[in-house]
Amino acid sequence: MQTPVPGCDYDRAAIMQLGERDFDQPTSPGDGWRGVAAREGCGLIAADLIRDYRQAHGSRSSLLYWHEAQLRAMANQVPESVALMRQSLLDSDPSGWNAYVEATIAFLLGDQRALIEARVRLLETPPPRGANVRSLGNGYVELSTATGAVSRRRWPPNLDIVDGLIRCFGKSYGEAYSSSCRAKPIDSPAG
Fold this sequence. Notes:
Elements: H1 12-16, H2 20-24, H3 32-37, H4 43-57, H5 62-74, H6 78-87, H7 97-108, H8 112-123, E1 131-137, E2 140-145, E3 150-154, H9 159-167, H10 173-177
Antiparallel strand pairs: 1-2, 2-3
């Protein structure tokens, strides 16, 4: 049993009963595991909550592994974080997720060459099939599907985060993941 941390208490029974979407991607930022993690000094409590939720529900969700891994990386639990990140890799990867995960692992292990190589792989990720793509600049594209739906999004996803990891290589994961490290895009594919 975990030692209580002042200010990190939560209604465990209620949170554990949530469906996975409400637990991981709640509509209100104060709900699910995120409500616990948002409090100062409660990141590891939230990481343990995600672990316990995964185990209690038999979940193999790559996002739950990923979010627990991120919280552990923020707390400098690198071996635990890397193991969880590897669990989040996908068998089918149309959006460049695996390159993003591999870039983050390389950052955590201090392997700048592998980080840059993963960025190159991420840049090579093609837009979704069946979509017409128009570059909007600054790392954004407009995707139009055959049904006429149009969306504006970053492409490839998570490139700004990988650029931040490169820009702030050698700093803590929390700092490199922050918006200050991803302030502007890196121009060359090799970083």
